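Intended use. Records like the one below are meant for learning the mapping from a protein sequence to its folded structure. Do not use them to infer anything beyond what is encoded.
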Amino acid sequence: MSILIVITIFLITLFLSYYLFNKWFNPLSLYVLVWTMLLVLYEIKLIRYIDLTSEVWIIISIGFASFLFGIITLFLTRGLFNESRNQNTSSKNFNLLFVKDGTIIRDTIIILSIIGLLNAIQHWIILINKFGSITSVLIQAGLVYRLRTAGEIEGVIPYLYVTSYIAIILAGIYTAYKNKITLTAILPFIAIIIKEIASFGRAGILIGFLSFTISFLLLRHSLSEKNKDYSIQRNKKNLFIAIIIMFILFVGSATIIKDFRGTFESYKASSSSLNKLEKGLIISPSIYLYVSSHVGVLSKYFQDPREKAMFGENTFQPIYNFLSKFGIVDHPNFFQRGYWIPMWTNTGTYLREIHADFGNIGLLLIPYMLGFLITFYWFKFYSNGKMIDLIILTHLFLIVALSFLVMITRTSVWFISFMSFFILIPLLELITKKISTK
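Structure written out for the chain above:
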């Protein structure tokens, strides 16, 4: 019954989102899609999850309603119902940045990707020196993963890997502009994959895939409406090819990590149907747990919400990490308390973290502000065509896309990438102005 209700709300909201934004890919459709997938996958119980409490269903509904009201508030206060159907998709800023057929953007992607790749190679050198060989590292993947999460692998240069994530957002933009997939666009994803295999983590690969897809689709919307030569048929074909290639890289790398980490993962609570898929390429107990378990943790958290957090500790964790280096605040724990549901897991959606940070008011205020801001920058970008608005919009979309998992602003990847663009974009504009005046 709960699945039927969730799917019904999804379909109604999907058509509402199209009516509001005049596009299928929009903030509201993305939010309702990721949460519908999470809830449906949890409720089919291929792992024998605990039942969700009535309280957590209400909390999820409040979060969704607040996000929706934030969107509607923007429409009502700015009178954008008609404007949404007559957007001025000016791209003068992009014409500046893509002089000489986008060579500035292309070279920037290559440079940032190489920096990320060198950081990934340095990470592997540390592991090889510690374990003896690549084969030994892969065989002892479980130990490597536990040491990494405990912070006991020393010597890896921190934060430098974020350049790959900056590059992959630019790669999505570059792919939309070129209207085809290129080796340049794939390069940052390769750097991310090599780095994440060294860490035996999957979240970074997911963030990379979503970053590329979101920036690609957002700019593609703009270019396809503005430029009549941007062939619809050719556009759809190249869209399909680009997404399929990136999806293959995403699934393939996640599968490699799953296979090596699988030696220490146990899924005794899995149903017989899921156990038959243990060696599956896309669906397996570990992948199913990764995409579906978080709402169960949320339910457990609200049954006994004893977690103590400083104001905004999860939402603004990179800032707290920086302040802790000077002894101003205690260093926050990156890994949160886990719960048995009946598998041990510790990520409980963004709702858990904003409640821990801001209390009950956070469940109303943060989704509302997110809905309002993402809609504001949606229309700001499609009206003005500024690169910085596209970057802000992409990062806001990432919060929505990963809201089923965590509050992504708590990660260094999101925060450093976001802040770096405020330096990078003006720098690129300055360079292109000098080149175009020669």
